[in-house]
Amino acid sequence: MHSPRPDDGRPQSVPETNVGRLAATIERLRAEVRQAQLAAEGRALIEVAKGILIERLRCSVADAAQQLAHLAEQAGVTQLELAADIINQAAQDRISETARAFLAATQAEEPSREAADLSVRLRSAESGALRAGDSQAVAESLLEHALTPLGASAVAIWEANPDASLTLAGYAGLSDEEARRWRYVPPGVETPARRALVNRQSVWLRSLSAAGLPSIGQREISGGRVTVPAGTGGQIFAVLEVAWPEPLPPQPPQIRKQIEALAELSAYTFDAPTRSGGPHHPQAVSELVALIDTLPDTALMLRPHLDDEGRLRDFRIQHANARFADPAGRPRHMVVGSLLLEAYPLAAGDGGLWDKIERVHATGEPFHADKLAMTALVDQVPLTSIASVSITRHRDSVLLVWRLHDEATQLASLLQHAQRLGRIGGFEENIVTGRIIWNSQLYALYGLEEGDPPIPLERLADHAHPDDAVAIGRFLRTVLHQRRPGSTAFRLRRSDGIARHIRVVAEPEFDADGRPLTIRGAYQDISSQHWTEVALAATRDQLAHTEQQAAERNRLTLQLQQAIMPPSQEPMEAFDLNIAVRYRPAEKEHLVGGDWYDAVVLPTKQILLSVGDVAGHGIEAATGMVVLRNALRGLAATGAGPGQLLSWLNLVAHYLTDQVTATAILGLYDPETRVLRWARAGHLPPILIREGRVEELDLIDGLLLGALSDATYDEGRLELASDDILLMYTDGLIERRDRTLDHSQGQLLRMAAHPIANLEHRLDHLLTHSSSDTDDDTCIVGIQLR
């Protein structure tokens, strides 16, 4: 059926349906109810303020109302704002503290207005929470009055259960479907609320999605999250969780204080006196006492001891059962009624018993430990005992149960642990009655269940490899017939097809008349040891062969090195130059290195002086040294300068050796001009001793040999004077593992300054007093001009 159209041709609007009218009516009624609630909460605050004025001014109700109106008019604020301020001044509670902190921290142009608005919001939220019948109404009041102005979009109130699980008690800004999904969080599930409960402190997350923690509303609201634990007397009853739609930047202290104050409001419906049965209910106390008295171990009922401000200070020992065993040996009447830290003052140590009791009382999460050190004072002497400890919370009481480990228990535990590690199983056979006792480890070795009948020694051969029958027979004759201790090894064949190598030892025990009573012994699984010995035996020959090859290789390397580089050499005189050299090989033959020295008169009448060090040790380093040293001698015959010689030697190291790198320093001394031209390839500079002064020559550029194919080397010039001494050396003279190279070079300069007339004695002195600890080769070349 078509709707009638007006003359202009446009469709006529559809009349409003009954469903639409009903929805509009419901929304209007909800708004009216919210306005009525706000008005009622405002009136409640005003009435509280009137009561404060009546008490302080000793006036009537009418006079208090007039006085409130008059003061509000004079201050230029509403009566509701003035009422909140009066309540803050009188209450001196967390909300008033928060308002004062906000007033002190704000830098706005009208701080009093902002503080007044904050006071009204917090007091309105408090009034709504107190008037609410359940946590659902508390959550709605907190979100509407106090959290929405902070930019929050949702709130959840979690009840902390005795087992540290969480139950959703109230929510606002979240869907009912999401609330049903998160109505219960089991113990051990890591959520922001549980983290606040277990850590007993506020948790501020800039972004829930970035933190990676699951929580209610995470699919729709993944921005900032704050969870704050709340409770009294050291016990946490609830956790307030607040959600923001966007990432939450760091908040100032006054905002944090507001959230903490609201968390206290959220715990009103969970306060201990309102819980089922009540913590001080006589029936609840008697039930716990009856439970304690049935326990087979020491059990104490602890009650929180609070100070005047309601903060937890200690625990009162309310009851101890008949099984009470004190670590200090005191009877139970000496500790019942006293405070825990008075009876056990050493329990307050870091991470000790007190911390665990306080945590259980606060969070409800039970604590169990098989081995916990408990220290008590015995005549002012600390006595530490090991105990199994269990701590649980029952309403606002804490149940502490322990069992002291006596010496026999500790020794049995130690023996069991040793048997498990050593794979040892013990047994006892009674010769008179025939009864056989096995421990659990022996059943495991045989692959049997603990209910299966144990196997007597006489039937040992039935479960062993046939080839071991002779050894087993000899063992049984020794133990069962000759009545002497015996042992043997055999291959156990288990029913599951697994074969194990076992060693068994046994010895008989006798009564006072010398008659045998029992046979006690042990089985040990030595399978891993057996196969290790087999593997070792298989590799011994190969290892011996390898060692022989290595020794031969080292011997040949050492012979090669000593043939080219003898440890000492007669002093040499050329023209007016006195030359001395020293070479000290490594103490360990396998560390034979590639250090070299050379001093030779060239056909040009110049004197070639050089030292070098090939990287590495062994035959490769020694052969590389031979190549470079001989190549340098041949190249020096061309008459080229030191820089050119090192450039050519670098090509030799790069192309004509097997990836050899080396440092070197060489000099060409001209007797006619007394000038020494020198160059270096990554080597330490020479040391000049002149007129008692010792100094290193200025460092010139030069890359180590073999690193790059194309390298150039700078030259230095030094004109020698009479009695000048020049030293060239390799780093084996000064290197230390615990010192820097600069430190070692400084120490060498101080040693070189020691006054010694003879050049050879000077080199011997340097070798003798060298502080190097790398056991590397060392070369020194010294020259002295007469």
From TrEMBL:
Top-level taxon of origin: Bacteria
Segments forming a coiled coil: 19-74
PAC domain residues: 486-538
Pfam annotation, one family: ANTAR
CDD domains given in the database record: PAS (cd00130)
Record keywords, A-Z: Coiled coil, Hydrolase
InterPro entries: ANTAR, Bact_Sigma-Reg, PAS, PAS-assoc_C, PAS-like_dom_sf, PAS_fold_3, PPM-type-like_dom_sf, PPM-type_phosphatase-like_dom
Domain annotation ANTAR: ranges: 26-87
PANTHER family: STAGE II SPORULATION PROTEIN E (PTHR43156:SF2), STAGE II SPORULATION PROTEIN E-RELATED (PTHR43156)
Entry protein name: SpoIIE family protein phosphatase
